[in-house]
Design brief:
With 210 residues, the chain is an alpha/beta fold. It contains seven helices and five strands; from the N terminus they run ββααββαβαααα. It has a single domain, classed as Protein tyrosine phosphatase superfamily (Protein-Tyrosine Phosphatase, Chain A, Alpha-Beta Complex). Keywords: Hydrolase, Protein phosphatase.
Length: 210
């Protein structure tokens, strides 16, 4: 190691080595568990530390990945949905919720799905909550609190930003409104009508993205 002189008397006391989180070629995860947790059958959550390791992904049967605010580490090996969302108060999660929910649901036929952000605490949990609200609305997640409770059973550290929770609340209201509308308008084929109506949310979110 290169030594530099400063003209001051050298201290004889041992100095603690500083920890560096920006080592080239490595991904730093300063908080949150480094492993993955299964939320419901086929759907996992983690931070980026786990998501960058191809071997770990394959060990839990992952075929598709939702990367929230992080790059796709293995685009040639897995199906990816990259969500460009920063973890800050000014970020709007609304345009991404329906797209993430649909991607998760549609990807389960290929294998397990991992949803991750930097720490696996806020953004990734928000996208999984959207999936639960849309596709498990009747059995697991009738409200945002229900959805977060399901996620926290497996990953207690989950804590989405207040702004993301507000976006989820609006999304949940849309889902509930569509369900009620379909039930009123159709006694037969309600499930088909409800799925078609929910599909309109996907089109709306795509239009907001472009």
């Amino acid at each position: 190691r290169t030594q530099h002189t400063t003209g001051k008397k050298a201290s004889t006391m041992p100095r603690k080595r500083k920890k560096h989180n920006n080592i080239k070629g490595k991904v730093s995860q300063r908080c949150g568990p480094k492993g993955a947790a299964q939320i419901v059958e086929g759907v996992y959550i983690s931070g980026e530390y786990f998501a960058r390791d191809e071997g770990r992904l394959r060990s839990i049967g992952v075929a598709s990945v939702v990367a929230c605010g992080c790059r796709a580490h293995h685009p040639d090996q897995f199906r990816y949905l990259e969500i460009r969302l920063s973890d800050k108060a000014s970020s709007d999660a609304s345009p991404h919720l329906n797209r993430a929910a649909d991607f998760i649901a549609q990807s389960l036929c290929h294998g397990n799905v991992l949803v991750h952000c930097k720490a696996g605490i806020s953004r990734s949990a928000t996208m999984i909550a959207a999936y639960l609200l849309k596709y498990h609305h009747e059995d697991l997640a009738q409200t945002v609190d229900d959805a977060l409770a399901v996620i926290r059973r497996s990953r207690p550290c989950v804590n989405p930003r207040p702004e993301f929770i507000e976006a989820l609340s609006s999304f949940s209201d849309q889902i509930s409104w569509l369900d009620e509308r379909c039930q009123v308008n159709s006694k037969n084929g309600g499930d088909k009508d409800r799925d078609a109506a929910r599909g309109s949310l996907m089109n709306a979110s795509r239009q907001e993205d472009h």
